[in-house]
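Supplementary Text 2. Reproducibility record for the structural model of the 188-residue chain.

All settings were left at their defaults, and a single model was retained for analysis rather than an ensemble. We include the record here because the model underlies the residue-level annotations in Supplementary Table 4.
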Amino acid sequence: MDMIVDSTGARIAQRVRLERDARGWSLADLAARSGVAKATISKIEREETSPTATILVRLAGAFDLTLAGLLLRAEGAAERVSRAADQPVWRDPDSGYVRRQLFLRPDHPVELVAVEMPAGGRVAMPASSYAHIRQVVWVREGELTLTEGGQTQRLGPGDALGFGPPSDAVFANETSAPCAYVVALARS
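Retained model, structure tokens:
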């Protein structure tokens, strides 16, 4: 999972602009709806900065999309078979976590995402990112500390956790080794 698709950042920038334009929103409109500063959105659209996972989740939520839905639109239409070589990979510039979209189709209710969280990595996701989905996290390697709905769970290899009602969540690797996990999401 170390290979990052170079054009992903440019595609994300183009998609954010396209989604905003399609709705007839100004930068100020998107900023108000997402809670992301207008200047930050402008820099993302001009490819002057790479957005963090938290910022992308906020932008996706403003567009009534999941993070995966926004990334899928940025990458283009998916085939029925998701070939490993074609799966979009993205690295969060803030935490360093690497996200691989294993499977996502607009006409299918389930999507799969593989994540590698570096040692000491931490990502906070707002409740809005879970508004129209249900999800399960399955740890493949390492340990993941997940705080969701005010409760903290420590998950080890093979452990799985089904999320409750939408609430703010924090994914953290509090160890000195990387953690790999899979997220299965279903649209509700």
